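Chain A, query sequence.
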Amino acid sequence: MPVITKAQINIQLNTIDSLWNYWGEDYALDYIKSLKKNESLSDYEHTRLDIRAIKINASQKHESRLDSVEQEIEIIASLDHSIADSSLLAEISHIKGMLFLRQEKFELAREQINHSISIYQKIDDEKKIHLTWAMGELGALYQIKGEYENALNILNEVYEMRKIRLGDDHPATLYTVNRLGSIHFYMGNYGTSEKYYRKCLEGRKRAISHSHIDYAISVYNHGMILKELGRYGEAEPLILEGIDLYKVGFGEDHYMYAKSLDNLGDLYRLMGFYEKAEKYFRQSIDVRKISVGDQSLEYAGGLYSLGALMILMEEYDEAKSIYNECAKIVELTLGKEHYYYANTLRNLGNIERQLNNLEGAEDLYARCASIIKNALGEEHSYYAKALKELGKVSFDIGKRQKGIDLLKESEQRYSKIFEKYNLLYAEAHHQLTEALIIDEQYEEAKNYAIENGDIKKTIINRGLDHLSEEERMIFQDRIVGDFDLLKNLGLKTNDENIYSSIFDISLFEKGMLLDASNQTRKYILSSEDETNVQYFDEWLSIKKELGKWYKDAEQYKNEISTAEVRIGEIEKIFARSSSHFRNEQRLKSTDLSDLLNMLQPNEVAIEFINFKIMSSDGENQYAALIADGEKNSISFIPLFESSKLESVINATLRDVDYVNRLYSSSSRGLASKEQKTNLYDLIWAPLSEALEDKEVIYYSACGILNRLNLSAISIDEEMVLADRYTMINMLSTRSIGNEYHAVGEEDIYLLGAVSYENEQDRDKDITAMRSADAVDDWQYLRWTEKEINQIEELATDANINIHKVVGNDATEAQFKHIGIKGNSPKIIHLATHGYFLQKENEDTPRTLANLIDQENPMLRSGLIMAGANEKYNSTVDVEDDGILTAYEISNMNLSHTELVVLSACETGLGDIVGTEGVFGLQRAFKMAGAKNIIMSLWQVPDRATKDFMISFYRNYLEEGLTIRKAFNTTQLEMRDRFYDAYNWAGFVLIE
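Chain A, predicted structure.
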């Protein structure tokens, strides 16, 4: 084999560097091994190749190979220097510096790297590429030590040298671009950091393989900065891609893989998904402990993230233990003046504040702020955060003006770092607004409060553009309560600008997630994108399987877990693909000015709201916002505290006398002689002056008001509200301008006279209720047969096509077939048993026993179909077991249905979930696309239900009245016929 000259070895070393840069370490190391097989290599040439291999192994990307590096480099360094030239000695010092840096021996690292640089600077090398590597290592040292200006200065110089000598897309140049992004990130210059990270990612896409570890690092970093900027929808897919790339590139036992898990956990922490965050944080810590040990800064970083989450989850003892351990590690490694140590103090302060040790928290926050100011300067986001925490605790202690001044400074500093729709800025803004309201500085608080509402609306809208349905619920729940600041200010001021902003927020937040879900489904169903269609088919198929599995959750728990993950993945795809469509719909939606213009002089719109009273122990305030188009004005009328109504309204109203007393005029609604308030005085009397000349009331209920029929509230012994006003119940008054026109032929789907077991049950008690009271069997409802037969006659006379299913044909499977191969019917009428299960129910029908413990209220409400009493027979198919849950209904396509009539008991009940309203059958049918729903609030007797329904259809089909007018007319007719509210007021119409 021919002898390799010194010039040739330099060429080979350049080849090694190219393989390292463009294809990765393993390619370069394999090439070195192949070269070393040449038996004619001199000792010098062998040494040069060994040095390059050691340098590659000593790089921060190969933590697992460091064990052998220190021994190898010492062997090389002890060789006869007569065979070593200056570049070899420089490289040895460089590698030793890298090694010390990775071992967190910072002063030794600085000494070796500077020695390397001094040698490289004397070498007559036109490109000086190796000099830039050593300078870059010094920049990394400065960065770790928090000496950011020094790091920035030296790396800017490196960047210019590499750009000129190697070009913009050379991996070495891009490495420097990435490092500059990292420094700006730690300096708090997030906008600049994002530009560098994006430039690096775009360059690496062009220059190197997507399997290269440097590409993985760029993906990770870009995802990380987008997370910090609050752009969660863009961040999540990049962070997930980064995890997959790190897993392949580093392995699951590497600390860099652990960091990628930590990054995902932090994203979920910020978004309020605490259980998911905890999973990734703990996994990250386990990996760090194995890969770098439990005394390293990397390990402390993992602990730090988990500790912050434990505070949010109110696990204060564990959090305190975690941060005490963090403090010890940081103190030994970096000292007490490093900002890492300051951030640990801040979180210890958070714990003390939660434990009500405010003075202790104040001291920790003050120390934190002082250290960060000295270490990072006053322009860093960490300093703004420290001021925010210090300001909040100072205010709470009683140093109110000092606290407000600090909160103002924090808010101003955040505003220079982030856009205002970032969660960190929004939180600082919120804290300042809250303090101003508590301090009764209402005029100054007003503009902050209004702006805070606008910020939170934008943040929520952004969340809708990339989250799954479940994640949307969690994210909205975290943010939506912040609107309470503005509502509390409404209690304290007489300012119509405030009232208008509150009304506008109510239009925004009520049923917001339902609307977003329906808009997404509408987009997907009308999409011509084959990929979307395929995803939708998969999503629907999995949802149908889940509907079956949930009924026996213990048996199918593994299948459920896997399916729920996949459902979430597909829904995120839907969210992103439909975001533009939803944003267009959002721009077209009704706002307050539109609403005021649509209202006629004799009409008003009322948004009922409830919100937590500031400085109270969980008490909620109910209020009414009245929009008057004629006056072009908004009124804000406080009503009552939640305990006053909750004490007299049961979750389910099953006692006949109780319901009659509640709605009667004699005792004005209550059974207790001691209780002097009543529904009219509590809810309506405060509104009467504002409604004096009005005839039509559009209203949207909230909270426990969803369990009441406001139309049936007595004004006096002769009149109820329905006599005085046309009452129109809506999920949100933003729907006032919406009109629905049925497409296609007029048709009606009738289901009733259901056989729950066999024909012999038709002789059961005719007073049966259409509800879930039976502990053993569902009773046949004989009046449902007369009901649907008479409706059939009315529909026939009105020339409406009829599809009727009765007896054993009224199956769950038959009903779920609606809308699959054609448009859903214009009218769907279901006369059967209904159920809503509270989790604390004692008397649960045996057929529903598997559903009582379900967290999802859509599984604890539903309708009973044919064969339900046979559920426990071995021959019964769980997919068609006669138990039609609200969850299963929500997966149907009823987008062409104008009216659903639930002629069953308690079909209007469910869990009340924040501003989304009632989660039960009404939400299920709304999710499926139905426009109007008639449902019941309590157990209306079978015969009375039949009479109500026949009267309604006579008014609707025979008299030709609108749905709304037919329903209101029917209620008054039934009131005159039965008088007792229990028999006529149980049904409500939701538009």
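Confidence is low (pLDDT under 50) at residues 61-69, 667-676. Residues 50 and 911 are 69 Å apart (CA to CA).
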